[in-house]
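ok trying again, last paste got cut off:
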Amino acid sequence: MDNQEIPPLSDQPTSPTRNPITSFKHILESRIFDHSSLPSTERPTWSALKKRRVPSKVVDSIYYLLLFLCSFSVLLIILGIFVELLFGSSRSIQEFGFHFFTENKWDPGNRIFGSLPFILGTLYSSAWALVIAVPISIFTAIFLSEFCPNRLYRPLSFLIELLAAIPSVVYGLWGIFVLQPFLVKWFETPISKSSFFSKIPIFGDTPNGYDMLSASMILAIMIIPYITSVSRDILRTIPKSIRDASYALGATPWQTIRLAVLPYARSGLIGAIILGLGRALGETMAVTMVIGNSPRITWSLFNSGYTMSSVIANELAEASGLYRSALIEIGLSLFVVTLIVNIIAKL
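nice, full thing came through this time. structure:
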């Protein structure tokens, strides 16, 4: 017994290497399809389970069809909205033609319908909103992507994105009770009393709070989270090698951002700005509550104005006939403009 030689390790019987597929079959049979309570003669084998499966080509075809229908339904919704607006505004289109977009008077009582004040009011307020929001948004995105400490990145990003979740009516109430009194007291009144600034056309009227400036400020605050979030994500996708190469040449952080980072991200940042513009063009409730709703063409920020979405929200409920058709045509115009702006942002 003591003299018995131990066979070499290579001569010892070893368990055969198990095929991974065989192991997977064993797991499925023993764990997923647990039939331990059945007699051994009634337990299904792997070949029987395999026969029960739906062919993979059928599953892939159903999955592909489901994805296609969901994607195609988005196109159908857009086409449906366009067709419905087109039919609803057909009477106004036949009655006024292109003159509807060049007439600057809006008088439903005398059947005079011109959308030019609303178109210019929408573009003017949105343009000033971009003037205010773009520098804040881009600088915030640069700070978050380049200089923000890790412990502050997530809280700041959350707070910025939280601005997009606030309902527009809340922005409108805040604008009426907080923003308008602040602007009138600390900005509009001192400027209107100034002998220099009061001569500038955009500051030439008596301030009342319900004006283009309040509407532009509200719009700027509402589009800041959209521009900032998209710009931040674009800046964070820039390869680190771009920055390292700039630093290797002796550039400062400011020079690196100005000469290397921003040019690399220019197209994406422009797309983010255009997306913010599309958001500003379609805003309704907050703007309606602070803009004053006066259908006239004005370039003064201290004057009341009107936008396309505001006139629809204010007057559609009481409109009928040609009046209603004219309002729907304004909605059609807004739909087309917003769609074009968003398409440009994706290019």
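cool. The chain has 14 helices and no strands. The longest helix spans residues 56-88.
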